[in-house]
Amino acid sequence: MLRFTVRRLLQAVPTLFVLSILVFAWLRMLPGGPATALLGDKATPERVAAMNAVLGLDDPIVVQYFRFLGRTLTGDFGNSLITGDPVMEEVSWAFPATLELSVAAMFLAVLFGIPMGYIAARFRGRFLDNATVITTLVGVAVPVFFLGFLLKYIFTQEMSLLPPSGRHDVLIDATRVTGIATLDGLLTGEFDATWDAMLHLILPSVALASIPFAVIVRITRASVLDVQGEDFVRTADSKGLTTQIVRKRHVLRNALLPVSTTIGLQTGLLMSGAVLTEKVFAWGGLGTLLEQAIQQRDYPRLQGLILLFAVVFVLVNLLVDISYAIIDPRVRVR
Amino acid sequence: MSILSTRKAEKIDSLAEGGTSLAMDALRRTFRSPVAILGLVIVGLFVILAIISPFIAPKDPYRPYPELKAELTPSNIPGPMPGFLLGSDQNGYDFFSRLLVGAQQTLFVGVFATLIGVAVGMIIGGLAGAFGGWVDSVLMRLTDIMLSIPSLLLAISIAALLPGSQWTVIIAVAMIGVPVFARLLRGAMIAQRSSDHVLAATALGVKRKTIVFRHMLPNSIGPVIVQATLTLATAIIDAAALSFLGLGDSDWRRAEWGLMLGNAQELLSVKPSLAFFPAIAIIIVALGFTLLGESMRESLDPKNRR
């Protein structure tokens, strides 16, 4: 197990290494070059020249790359052009909001996705199954941000049931501890803040959950159908085990293996979706930072965010692989 | 002929069909399913609409109309009125005509984004699959990296490099598909490389080029076609997402559903239909391509072959 983990960790290193080269090259390909990108379009030629000297753009390219790598590894992504604050600071401030949203969405997707996929498989070809399959296909076809709009339109504009945007009502004075709004209220005893944060969380997390939900339902369904036809299930049946035991111990447990991998792979989609969802609901997380960075062409921030998203994605996949090896020992040998 | 002999004839026919190719077999199975037919109908109608829409649009989608402009204020966008089926858009253009013509531009973006993705992906995957060895390792590492960036962020980082034009959107969206197609084709070709018919061809002394193009590629193309159909759906949605984030086409006049949806986001409280109609159009078309792709995938799966 340890050997597998170490090997898998080492495999991630070249990926991250080449990724850093690509991001470095990307920064140099930006319109007007890195100095203009960092200073903004309105920079005078003198300032650009000065910035070039500061950035050491006269040095050999290899030297420049390793300087960039060194800065990145120490978490120095430069300062945002919009706020002037270090990108790292902004990112760590906004990260808990995105984490909260993504975890809530994934929780909903798993909570409803696995049972629905299982039920669909049990009633294969019947109405319930067809309805489920069609629902998931539509779920994939609906743009996440449009679903957000739709939910917002129905539940806030038409029914006034839920708050339209943000993470807290303006009247609520919540203390920030971890930055995860629902958790903070519990930690400080401000239960009204937690309740308020949860109300704010409902619509964005439902919108964001739509795609992982659809994928989880379909994988669970396909996987259960696969396992149901296996020899060991027939053996378990014929040796007289009750249907319940066969389903729980033999079918479900084996069917959930591919589902667990899928959940990991959904992280990337979840991040893409979070960017869009956060814009619809003015969430104030990483997606909001990214959206502002795009609007204002804030390249230092954009670069920091893209690196961060990619690193998180690589790490999550690493964790998924390792957990998969724990669940299924066969993976370790390969 | 009696019923019995008809049955017999059918049985013999079906036996003779045992020798048909997997592709023909899959195609026949695909169009036996109602889901596939629904998908095909949606896609077909969409393509027809895209072709004829400039001729059937009742008004010019690219110019403002004074009668619409007269009633246009920041808080009021005229609804349906005589001659203008769905009223005005935010610029005093005929919304209905723009919606119709939007099919063409949307198809254009979707098809070219997918084609570029397929072409680049197939070159990478084909080289990797045909040569193997270090070529394979290097190219696959490259696709791994592209896959390690969440798809929308990959598109965003490419769109940020280029000026905001329609081709920027197409190229950015195409890049999402590149690693997928590369991996897919490579996987299929590697499976082919160790198959009996390739071994036989090699033993007969057929040239490697001929083996790759005559034997390996045609047999690996099925999954690529399926994936391309599915990618068309996501490409249209991703293009809309880029527009929504402000990275889309800078030509706000262009009638393309994603762009129309992206530009209508601020106007939800004024005239929600400006967002809803393009969105519904995108959803239906995406669903059509998804239904078609999924049923093709299902019937190409040898496990479902009877």
Automatic annotation (TrEMBL), chain A:
Domain ABC transmembrane type-1, chain residue ranges per copy: 95-324
SUPFAM superfamilies: MetI-like
Subcellular localization, as worded in the UniProt entry: Cell membrane
InterPro entries: BPD_transp_1_N, MetI-like, MetI-like_sf
UniProt xrefs under CDD domains: TM_PBP2
Residue spans crossing the bilayer: 12-29, 101-121, 133-155, 197-217, 255-276, 305-327
Bilayer topology annotation: Multi-pass membrane protein
Keywords recorded for this protein, A-Z: Cell membrane, Membrane, Transmembrane, Transmembrane helix, Transport
Sequence similarity: Belongs to the binding-protein-dependent transport system permease family.
Annotated protein name in UniProt: ABC transporter permease
UniProt organism field: Prauserella alba
From TrEMBL, chain B:
InterPro entries for the chain: BP-dependent_transpt_permease, MetI-like, MetI-like_sf, OppC_N
Subcellular localization, as worded in the UniProt entry: Cell membrane
Keyword tags: Cell membrane, Membrane, Transmembrane, Transmembrane helix, Transport
Domain ABC transmembrane type-1 intervals: 103-293
Membrane topology: Multi-pass membrane protein
Membrane-spanning parts: 35-57, 107-135, 142-161, 167-185, 224-247, 274-293
Organism domain of life: Bacteria
Gene3D superfamilies: MetI-like
Record family assignment: Belongs to the binding-protein-dependent transport system permease family.
Name of the protein: ABC transporter permease subunit
